[in-house]
């Protein structure tokens, strides 16, 4: 779709209702409206003029669709809504500008033309505005603009974009749905079901998804499941060999595993038979999905990935930081699901190991063969069989002899406690007797015993399983003992417990409230200061019990801060109200940091809290006083703005009242000059010409005073402004003046800054016009160039040099004496009298524009050698 913007070579006649209006006001003033259905502005109905004036003066996004053709006019706020369609959209029909949604909104426009207003919230309006058909949502109102006779002349469009909120809420709901499933996932199959159920409701953010699981050799990935594969021509093999994928569309998978970073897949979109081609494009969304991302699924602390999540990217959304965070959060939940499934698998493996013990007992009981004995001897745990009430050692493997530190000849056929007498009184004999008598198996963990080993009496710890062995009559006559020595781990744990005990002692004596949490985010410890403050027991506070004391207005924010920081493994600080033991809610400051082992393994969080209630309430009181003062200042500003408005109204009326008689003087003077010039002598003709010239100067003076007054009350809209483009437009406007004087304007490379384009145009046009005017008879040469902000300028104006740009406008004119370098920016200052004309306001306007942009301007000059005006402007407006 293309349009021709209608801009004539010369500006249109002046229309007061089109004054200002920012960039769009400038565009409207320059357009040739005679080539549009609504005609030139001076013929527009009063209601249209009024509506356009209101539209241009507001920063809220507004547009007008006028007449049966719905000819479009819009302001600066509306311009981003149409993106790349600007400026062609100005003066074109809304039916063509909004063609992609006209089937939906065209009937609404027709309804408004009957006098009925239309309002919609979160309305889906796909728009071509940034180079692609974008998924957009808006709150909008279409209102009739009535003519003087009561008929509807056009549609007033007021609009507010809600795209970010709608998409953010939709993604958050998907993540909540996934989180709800994660807690119940037990197997890989359930992970597949989780993806199908949760992603089925969000095709807009996840057009399709593929989940591959990494095999143990890390060289292959296996497809677990896919979502919405039936809507796309997905060439997704059940198994992909990553070592052979370098030259295929799957090269990004191996790279994602290697770098542990998401990888972008775009090359696939060039082939109509590959992964990303849509079989049946949607009516509302005709473009194919042409981009996907591969996200590696890793569990913290593990080298091998669980899998790869491949997700399609909606071509109607910009892939920005929020979109990427959504995909990464989705991958993190899948990590948690795989982790949960792995834990359950480990538990099943342990159960299988126990079953193996039972099987071993059965095999020994049925006279194990040579192969079984070999397995018995090579078992990684100690195994022995003790027969009868004296627990005669009937069979033992090498590992068991190592624990006893005895030879087989010393043990086989002898009662156990006759040889290992040092362990007899430690409860082991009683445990064996109970198994033998009751037939009930027993298990002990970290059991302490003493053994005479390596020439000394040692304390050792064991975990053991005691299983009864039945004879052919079903009577228990022996006990199978499977033992694993855990001395080193028990001693290490005891040292850790001693360290934790010392920590708890220190924590309980600290005046700060201290808490700790584990890997599951649940709290495991609160010191005495916390318990004394809340008046609750440790059991009541465990897990999430502590949240019962948090004020209901602070709880959600508090938990969000905690869980978000926990997932990111980052320190955090938050303030919330906690109920004290007397029922009073007190403000506390909670500062926490993640805990890591010496090997870098994450263990949870530790936090400290202090009571800041007095400081908080004092701050709130101070804020209340500040708010009172702010309200008083707001009222004062309102009165000042009202006064400025009244002054503006006065300036407008006064300028009109002054201009009208001046126009008549000039008009009738020109008539007389034509008809009576040959009837006047030289003296009379000189008087007559002086009168005409004086009225012209008066006209210029009125215009300059009005422009200066507008600069004081104008609400500025800052946009990215290319200074090179501004200077180029100015030299075009002054082309005739430059040619008449034979002058040259040399322009160096200039930057783009954030500024009000209209005012910047006026600033540099005044400076260049002055340079041409005060040329002292020589050929005017004007140099405009950028220079770094010097150290002296930085110190003089107290600014950071890297945040500003300095522009020099240098000429070879008459210059000025340095004593007037500050005076020349005052009102009605003309250093050279009436010789060069002017009102003495031009440089005052320049100073005001620079002030409006939080910048600085100063001048240097030498009589008869020229002048240099330096303009220092910020690159960005705060």
| Share of helical residues | 40-55%
Q: How many strands, which pairing sense, and closed or not: the largest β-sheet?
A: 6 strands, antiparallel
What value does the Rg take, in angstroms? 43 Å
Mean pLDDT: 81
What class would the helix/strand composition place it in?
alpha+beta
Distance between the termini: 37 Å
Biggest sheet strand order reads 11-9-8-15-14-12
Strand content: 15-25%
Give the total of beta strands.
32
Contiguous helical run count: 25
Show unreliable segments.
1-12, 269-284
Shape: elongated
Topology of this protein?
Layout: H1 22-30, H2 46-57, E1 62-66, E2 71-74, H3 79-82, H4 94-97, H5 102-113, E3 118-124, E4 127-128, E5 133-134, E6 137-146, E7 152-161, H6 163-182, H7 188-199, E8 209-214, E9 220-227, E10 232-233, E11 239-241, H8 251-259, E12 263-265, E13 277-278, E14 292-297, E15 307-312, H9 321-365, H10 370-378, E16 382-387, E17 392-396, H11 398-404, H12 408-411, H13 416-419, H14 428-438, E18 442-453, E19 456-470, E20 476-485, H15 487-509, E21 513-517, E22 523-526, H16 528-534, H17 538-541, H18 552-568, E23 572-579, E24 585-596, E25 602-611, H19 613-676, H20 682-713, E26 719-722, H21 723-733, H22 735-741, E27 744-747, E28 752-755, H23 757-773, E29 781-787, H24 791-797, E30 804-811, H25 842-852, E31 856-862, E32 866-874
Parallel strand pairs: 27-29
Antiparallel strand pairs: 1-2, 1-7, 3-6, 4-5, 6-7, 8-9, 8-15, 9-11, 10-13, 12-14, 14-15, 16-17, 16-20, 18-19, 19-20, 21-22, 21-25, 23-24, 24-25, 26-28, 29-30, 30-32, 31-32
């Amino acid at each position: 779709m293309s349009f021709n913007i209608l801009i004539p070579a010369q500006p249109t006649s002046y229309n007061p209702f089109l004054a200002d209006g920012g960039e769009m006001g400038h565009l409207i003033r320059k357009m040739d409206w005679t080539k549009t259905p609504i005609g030139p502005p001076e013929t527009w109905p009063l209601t249209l003029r009024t509506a356009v004036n209101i539209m241009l003066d507001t920063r809220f996004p507004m547009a007008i669709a006028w007449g049966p053709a719905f000819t479009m006019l819009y302001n600066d706020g509306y311009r981003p809504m149409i993106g790349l369609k600007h400026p062609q959209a100005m003066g074109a029909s809304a039916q063509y500008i909004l063609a992609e949604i006209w089937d939906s909104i065209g009937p609404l426009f027709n309804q408004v033309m009957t006098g009925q207003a239309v309002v919609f919230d979160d309305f889906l309006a796909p728009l071509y505005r940034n180079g692609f058909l974008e998924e957009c949502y808006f709150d909008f109102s279409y209102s009739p603009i009535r003519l003087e006779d009561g008929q509807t002349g056009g549609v007033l469009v007021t609009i507010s974009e809600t795209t970010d909120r709608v998409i953010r809420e939709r993604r958050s709901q998907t993540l909540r749905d996934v989180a709800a499933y994660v807690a119940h996932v037990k197997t890989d199959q359930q992970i597949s079901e989780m993806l199908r159920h949760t992603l089925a409701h969000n095709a807009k953010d996840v057009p399709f998804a593929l989940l591959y699981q990494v095999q143990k050799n890390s060289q292959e990935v296996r497809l677990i499941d896919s979502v919405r594969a039936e809507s796309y021509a997905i060439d997704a093999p059940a198994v992909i060999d990553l070592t052979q994928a370098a030259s295929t569309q799957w090269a990004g998978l191996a790279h994602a595993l290697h770098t542990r970073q998401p990888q972008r897949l775009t090359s696939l979109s060039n082939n109509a038979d590959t992964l990303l081609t849509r079989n049946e494009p949607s009516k509302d969304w005709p473009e194919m999905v042409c981009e996907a991302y591969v996200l590696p699924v890793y569990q913290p602390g593990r080298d091998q990935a669980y899998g790869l999540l491949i997700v399609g990217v909606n071509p109607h959304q910009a892939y920005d930081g929020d979109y990427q965070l959504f995909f990464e959060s989705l991958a993190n939940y899948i990590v948690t699901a795989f982790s949960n499934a792995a834990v359950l698998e480990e538990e099943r493996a342990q159960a299988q190991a126990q079953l193996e013990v039972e099987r071993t007992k059965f095999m020994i009981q049925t006279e194990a063969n040579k192969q079984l004995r070999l397995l018995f001897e090579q078992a990684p745990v100690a195994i022995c069989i003790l027969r009868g009430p004296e627990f005669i050692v009937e069979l033992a493997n090498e590992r068991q002899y190592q624990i006893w530190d005895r030879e087989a000849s010393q043990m086989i056929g002898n009662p156990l406690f006759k040889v290992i007498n040092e362990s007899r009184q430690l409860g082991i004999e009683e445990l064996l007797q109970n198994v033998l008598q009751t037939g009930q198996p027993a298990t002990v963990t970290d059991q302490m015993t003493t053994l005479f080993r390596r020439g000394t009496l040692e304390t050792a710890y064991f975990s053991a399983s005691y299983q009864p062995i039945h004879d052919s009559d079903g009577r228990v006559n022996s006990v199978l003992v499977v033992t694993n020595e855990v001395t080193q781990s028990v001693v290490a744990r005891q040292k850790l417990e001693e360290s934790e005990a010392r920590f708890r002692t220190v924590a309980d004596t600290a005046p700060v409230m201290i808490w700790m949490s584990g890997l599951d985010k649940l709290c495991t410890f609160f010191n005495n200061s916390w318990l004394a403050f809340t008046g609750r027991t440790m059991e009541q506070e465990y897990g999430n019990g502590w949240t019962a004391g948090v004020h209901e207005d602070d709880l959600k924010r508090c938990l969000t801060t905690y869980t978000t920081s926990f997932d990111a493994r980052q320190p955090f600080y938050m303030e919330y109200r906690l109920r004290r033991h007397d029922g009073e809610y007190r403000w506390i400051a909670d500062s926490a940091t993640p805990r890591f082992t010496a090997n870098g393994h994450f263990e949870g969080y530790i936090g400290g809290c202090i009571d800041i209630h007095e400081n908080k309430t004092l701050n709130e009181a101070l804020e209340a006083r500040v708010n009172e003062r702010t309200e008083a200042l707001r009222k004062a500003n309102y009165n000042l703005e009202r006064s400025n408005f009244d002054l503006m109204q006065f300036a407008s009326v006064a300028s009109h009242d002054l201009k009208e008689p001046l126009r008549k003087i000039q008009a009738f003077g020109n008539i007389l000059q034509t008809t009576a010039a040959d009837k006047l002598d030289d003296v009379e003709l000189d008087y007559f010409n002086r009168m005409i010239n004086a009225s012209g100067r008066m006209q210029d003076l009125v215009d300059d005073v009005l422009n200066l007054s507008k600069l004081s009350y104008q609400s500025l809209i800052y946009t990215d402004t290319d200074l090179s483009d501004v200077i180029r437009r100015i030299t075009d406007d002054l082309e005739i003046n430059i040619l008449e004087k034979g002058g040259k304007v040399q322009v160096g490379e200039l930057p783009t800054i954030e500024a009000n384009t209209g005012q910047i145009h006026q600033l540099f046009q005044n400076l260049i016009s002055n340079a041409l005017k005060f040329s002292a008879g020589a050929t005017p040469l004007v140099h405009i160039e950028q220079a770094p902000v010097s150290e002296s300028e930085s110190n003089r104006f107290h600014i950071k040099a890297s945040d500003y740009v300095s522009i020099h406008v240098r000429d070879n004119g008459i210059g000025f004496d340095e004593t007037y370098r500050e005076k020349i920016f005052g009102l009605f200052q003309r250093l050279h009298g009436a010789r060069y004309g002017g009102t003495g306001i031009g440089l005052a306007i320049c100073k005001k524009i620079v002030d409006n942009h939080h910048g600085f301007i100063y001048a240097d000059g030498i009589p008869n050698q020229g002048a240099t005006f330096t303009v220092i402007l910020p690159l960005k407006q705060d």
